[in-house]
Automatic annotation (TrEMBL):
It comes from the Bacteria. Signal peptide: none annotated. This is DUF2520 domain-containing protein. It holds the Pfam family DUF2520. Residues 138-261 form the DUF2520 domain. Residues 5-120 form the Putative oxidoreductase/dehydrogenase Rossmann-like domain.
Amino acid sequence: MKATLNIVGGGRLGTTLGALAHASGRYRVGAVLCRERAHAEAAVALIGDGVPLCELAALPPAALTLIAVPDAAIAPVAAQLAAAGVLPAGAVAFHASGAGEASLLAPLAAQGVHCASLHPAFSFADPARARERFAGTLCAFEGDAAAQAPLYAFARAVGGEPFALAPGGKAAYHAALSVASNYLVSLLDLATRVAAEGGVDAGAAARLVGSLMQQTLDNARALGPVAALTGPIARGDDGTVARHLAVLAGEDAVAYRTLGRLTLALASAPDAAQRDRLTALLADQAGTANT
Ligand SMILES: NC(=O)c1ccc[n+]([C@@H]2O[C@H](COP(=O)([O-])OP(=O)(O)OC[C@H]3O[C@@H](n4cnc5c(N)ncnc54)[C@H](OP(=O)(O)O)[C@@H]3O)[C@@H](O)[C@H]2O)c1
């Protein structure tokens, strides 16, 4: 028998997961709820199943309720759902925020609803495109242990690969994603600007840096970070590091030193004397004007 899935928030993520759940043949979409009726109708049309709704109190009974509203609206919507008293004890409610925890749904948990978060590490820019490419997406589960089995089954039915975070692990998980995704872009920009300062024209600098980063990422994923590490710090070449620092200023030098210290911790080749010289070069330079 198909389990019923309600979706509160028929936007990019809600519509995509709803369509994939329907297509799996294992779920029936009960209702799709938005504040604007036209949005709920459009979501139902894209999903191919479900009833469009605007009133929380009208939600039909469902085993799973996905709260797919913007992050800031998750806690208020959970409070409204609890006030409406529509989710029975023993049902599962979950949101898909990367940063927020299951505790955003606390008013529902207080009513005996099994609450969790299930975050797909995926960008749902366009629903049709997202549906085609979602297979194999890692989905981070966190929350009430009683919600784990039904949400793992849901994640697998839509083509995802579920895994569990440690209790309280959501902030570290999201920090890791931010470093991996956002800081990669900042590093690309930093390296491109520094190359341009050395006289490489802007187009060539972007290609030079981008292709080297791509190659290095491939190596690090294939070999692991320690084996993939090359360059002056890995070799213990403090003279080259000093020359780099001579042409870097401000936040660029701060970033170079900070990441350099993390790099030195990974490097196994430098001997004790090289390590000491590198440590001194890469130390924080608090109070100096040019670094
Ligand atoms: N987009 C992504 O790539 C992505 C990736 C991973 C996780 N997520 C997570 O998925 C969740 C949804 O993100 P999204 O990008 O799909 O959002 P979205 O495209 O902006 O859609 C939000 C939906 O929620 C409805 N909504 C907003 N406030 C509401 C309220 N108070 N009550 C009922 N419905 C409401 C909106 O319709 P009305 O305006 O008509 O109410 C809309 O249908 C967020 O928690 C986000 O962090 C998103």
